[in-house]
Amino acid sequence: MKDFFDVLAFHEKFDLPRAAKSAPMPTGAFEFRKGFLGEELREHEVAAGRGNLVQAVDGLIDFVYVVYGTAWFIGVRRDRYGFEWPRFDTVAFERLT
């Protein structure tokens, strides 16, 4: 999960906003983040459609960066994330089986 912690370090360095405690995102902020995620996914889709692997991967990395930044925004903490991930991963896996 080093990549997650790298994104959190970026957000800390630039003092980007986050919730005082873990909480759902306000509607306006959610709409902004949703648009941001869509933009990165479209970047990947266009690049993949053109056969440009480098740009396609860049779009995916940007997408993940925004996802992790969204976790920061809603108050996911460094010290708790490692304990939360296995639980979420298990729940997601159980949905598939």
Secondary-structure topology with pairs:
Layout (H helix, E strand, L loop, with lengths): L1 H12 L13 H23 L3 H21 L4 H19 L1
Main attributes of the structure:
globular, mainly alpha, single chain, 97 residues
What does this molecule look like?
By secondary structure, the protein is mostly helical. It is built from four helices and no strands. The chain has helices at 2-13, 27-49, 53-73, 78-96. α1 (2-13) packs across α3 (53-73) and α2 runs antiparallel to α3 (53-73). It is globular, with a radius of gyration of 15 Å. 5% of the residues are buried. The mean pLDDT is 81.
In short:
The chain is mostly helical. 77% of the residues lie in helices and 0% in strands.
H and E order:
HHHH
Rg, Cα atoms, Å = 15 Å
Seen as an oligomer or otherwise, the chain set is: single chain
User: Total number of β-strand segments?
Assistant: 0
The number of helical elements comes to 4
Which band does the percent of strand residues land in? Answer: under 5%
The shape, in one word, is globular
- Based on secondary structure, the structural category is mainly alpha
Distance from N terminus to C terminus (CA atoms, Å) equals: 24 Å
- Contiguous low-pLDDT stretches (5 residues minimum) are none
Averaged pLDDT? 81
Helicity level, as a percent range?
over 70%
Largest sheet: none
